[in-house]
Amino acid sequence: MLFRLAASAACLVFACASPNARANESFTLDDAFERVIDTHPDLRIYRHTETLLIAEADRAALAPAVVANVQLENAPGTGALSGVRGAELTLSLSSVLERGGKREARRALAASRLDALGLQRSTRQLDLLADVARRYLDVVAAQGQAGIARDEVAQRERTVQASRQRVAAGASPTSVALSAEAMLSRARLDLSRAETQAAAAWRRLAILWRETDLQVMPRLSAQPLVLPSIPTFSALQTALRESPDLQRFADEARIREARVQLARTTASPDIDWQAGVRRLQGDDAWALVGGVSIPLGSRRRSDPEIRVATAELESLALERESAELALIATLAQAHGQFTAARAEVELARSDVLPRMHRAEAAAERAYRAGALSYLEWAQLQSETTAARSRQLAAAVDAYRALIEIQRLTAEPFVLAERAPTETTP
Prior knowledge:
Low-confidence stretches: 1-13, 15-24, 413-425
Strand content: 5-15%
Shape: elongated
Number of helices: 9
Radius of gyration: 37 Å
């Protein structure tokens, strides 16, 4: 149940995919999740851990074994007891009578460890899915930067064309065309670097499902500039109290309580008993034999173990309080980072980039008309590209914070929103 909730929460990080993403067979975050869940050893190992804990629970439920004893005395002997004439053969059964509820305490401890395994597995799955989402985001960011670089190459190509026309018309010196060509070469280099980084990010993601022989990198369906709404910090703090990171303390408390109970049972000494029959060869007779043994001082010897188990249980409340404070601090940082980054993305979309696109288009017209220098147009192109890169970086920061928030709360609270379409020159 918790795993499905965690998966849903992480999936919604990129819930803003285009409507035709599935139809176009693009690679989604869901696809990455499925591959990792099916193949990653950190998840598969829990099957063996469960088998081990079930076996331990079965062993804890076993009663002490009954032991069959055979003892032969006075054989062979010498003199009057030569041979087996004086032999005594004893057949007996022995075992331990457990007192103080030791068997029930063992079973309770084993059952609590087995119950805690489900939450441990879900927590590990949630952490792993968050790592998948981060690596998927790295690919999305690299592909987004490559898209910006492609647009810059197209801009620089138009600049080169315009500068060559002005040089041919004698309106600009040759140095202007050479400078434009150099800027075009640098833009192409930036594009090549971005594509290389995207390939490296994809390889790092694919390693999670043990794919090393990479072919063509697929097209991802995410839209990084589309940011969702999230609840208030107070609402997130409330959800945090039910998070797996804090719920594990409840399971740990049950385990430690079971250890305390098991330690207390050692104050009641076990009774070793033995009963059987003995063959008296000399008298040609059989006799019953029996015996019990009880260790002394069990309560005194069990006292240190009880005090240790009790101290571990009592310290758990402080451990939980400390962990909660650390988680709240992390949540506050992630919430603030998301809020600030989302505001930056929205400001760039609604105000900064539209103005820069209009300014760049006006600068191109002015340059072609001879009313603006090449350097002024080139500077505007660089500033526009830098502004788009900053917007993408802010969006990536927002999604990193969102992944951390959802990892902490394991709540599928994100509501996807469709961003307004940007105008690209």
